Amino acid sequence: MHRLRRGGGVGPVCGDGRSTLTRAPFYGARRPAYAQPVATAVRIGCCSFADEALVKHWYPRGVSARERLSYYAERYSTVEIDSTFYRLPDEQTVRGWAERTPAGFVVHIKAFGVMTRHPVPLARIPPGLRAEMPVDERGRVDRPSRATRALVFSAFHRALEPLRQAGKLGGILFQLPPYVVPNPASFDYLEWARGQLGSDEMLVEFRHRSWFDEDRRAEVLRFLEERRMSYVSVDAPRLDAANVPRTLVAATTPLAYVRFHGRNAATWNARGGGAAKRFDYLYDAGELAEWVEPLRELAGVAQAAYALFNNNNVSDGLAQAPAGAAVLQRLLAENGVPVG
């Protein structure tokens, strides 16, 4: 795989056929001002601290629901909260996350579905906001106005204040649905959403493959960079389907972010089963070794670097996400990449 270009022009830096990773960590006219003389430590964690696989197969017996995050935070320095995609968080719950984690711990929050243009059942909208929501024949929120969405953004923002005050709020993950494609309306919506978040970090994960087309990716990454949106690199199945994102390694802000979805091509588009089936995958050391150099180079141009595991099932009694996290941590340490 070719070396990454850290400035000096734009355009993708592609592999040489020996790897499926495409690496282009900086799109700009010069080396980023935030690039570090010494690589930052890569923080590794899971995309949940309370999913079923962890609860049943990772936490020791006797660890209560209230104690789980504290136990998790003794072993990891970061976590991604995905429950907020399904329901708006409440301030009391968020305060608990802040109180049960040590200083320096970083909590990333997945944006609520209405914020990322996903269909959301009206029942998941707080009662005080339901009257504002148009619904479809299935009882789902259907294309609310910008003013109505702004109310949701505002409620979401207020709920995160305890983490913000504690200095533990990382990024807000905008995982776009696969039907959101790179057209003017999509770019316009992203720019509007960026404005709604204020000073919070915005992480953007694309799901439709057209965002990664060779004749478009420079434009997309430059758009994110110019508007202070952090591109999310993903590891996903090597499957030629429109709803499987390509693995393009890049950083568009001082925050580098990688999500590991697993490589289960057989279940990604299987009917039924949902996320538990789609992300059912246990990485082996060879697959994760592919990420040592990309993560080393991302850590060299970023002020903060994160690697989060979203494979959320069980293999032979082993919770997949922490198993992968442990292997990646070992590989990085063995190869001299700082781990936080």
What distinguishing features does this structure have?
alpha/beta; globular; TIM Barrel; 340 residues; 12 helices; eight-stranded parallel beta sheet
- What is the H level of CATH, i.e. the homologous superfamily? Protein of unknown function UPF0759
Number of domains: 1
User: What is the chain-wise order of helices and strands?
Assistant: EEHHEHEHHHEHEHEEEHHHEEEH
Number of strands: 12
Distance between the termini: 26 Å
Number of helices: 12
- Compute the average pLDDT: 89
CATH class: Alpha Beta
User: What is the overall silhouette?
Assistant: globular
Q: What is the CATH architecture assignment?
A: Alpha-Beta Barrel
The secondary structure category is alpha/beta
Beta-strand residue fraction:
15-25%
Q: Which runs of at least 5 residues are low in confidence (pLDDT < 50)? A: 1-20, 24-31
Helix content: 25-40%
User: Major sheet, described briefly?
Assistant: 8 strands, parallel
Structure commentary:
By secondary structure, the chain is an alpha/beta fold. The protein has a single domain (22-334), classed as Alpha-Beta Barrel (TIM Barrel). The chain contains twelve helices and twelve strands. The strands form three sheets. Strands 2-10-9-7-6-5-4-3 form an eight-stranded parallel sheet. A two-stranded parallel ribbon has the order 1-8. The protein is globular and about 55 Å long. The two termini are 26 Å apart. The model is unreliable at 1-20 and 24-31 (pLDDT under 50).
Topology:
Blueprint (H helix, E strand, L loop, with lengths): L21 E2 L18 E5 L5 H6 L10 H6 L4 E4 L9 H9 L6 E5 L16 H4 L15 H14 L1 H6 L2 E7 L8 H13 L4 E5 L11 H10 L2 E7 L12 E2 L5 E6 L13 H5 L6 H5 L2 H10 L2 E6 L4 E2 L2 E2 H15 L6
Parallel strand pairs: 1-8, 2-10, 3-4, 4-5, 5-6, 6-7, 7-9, 9-10
Antiparallel strand pairs: 11-12
